[in-house]
Amino acid sequence: MYFVGVDGGATKTLAILSDDSGKILGWGLAGPSNYHHVGLEGAMSAIKESVKKAMSMANIEHINVICCGLAGADTKKDQKILHEGLCSLGLAEKNILVHDAVIALMGATAGKPGIIIIAGTGSVASGMNERGEYARAGGWGPILGDEGSAYYIAREGLAAVLRSYDGREEKTMLTSEFLRAMGITEVEDIINKVYVEKVGVEYIAGLAPVVTKCAQAGDKVALRIVSNAARELAKLAIALINKLNMKDLEFPIALVGGVFKAGEVIIKPLSKEIVKVAPKAKITTPRLPPCAGALIIALREGGVEPNETVIRNIELGLKNIPI
Description:
This protein is α/β, with parallel strands linked by helices.
């Protein structure tokens, strides 16, 4: 039997193919497959290309189960549209479509119970308990959500600089650091950047390290912002802990995304909040990447339980793939 796991995002689509022992036989890389950005046809084209490349490398013509974890599969409507699109490709006997947070979780915990907090440009968390029940929190985008994300941190930092300029906030080193990072000379130029040049979410999110750097240097305003971000991210995990009845259990909470590169300045306050609710939870790093999480789901759907031997085979195979 042959299985495929697909990680489809806003920048690329990666497919990995294995047999029922978890041995990776092929992989394929294609363009973005977030259908909100590239349309349904573009998303399906990228998925098909990545899977066909993996099949060609493995020299096989038949797939038993495919699992695609896709960015943009946020709502039931999204998932229905994408699942129908996936089925129309005729790539496998069985087609599974899930949100990309699900495959990130399954990869991070190697298919075991736990929680993952993702904090990059946006923020989202997902979790699964020992009964196999799944839940998700956050992921509602920069206008309605993404609390604790890089975008959130940078936006709050820029707002603090403007308040400081007004005299509504204490002086902060964020002012000079943002001006330097943005290549401008006056605080009022921030307004031009945001409202006239209309820099995007990604640009603003890219300024988050300015805030975390100032927080690490002890700037009070920056520290407050980062601490608030940590608490918001903790709320995502706590919501899942409550939903999934995991308060008294021992389980991993894997941290993923650029925000956590700031280290203890954000991880320490986050851990402090979580331990109040789930004292046995352990903050960890992901064991496997999202594409492996998709493969684990495909294996399970095909009746193969990914035991430690299977997981190790996946780990070994991933070393030769430019993830």
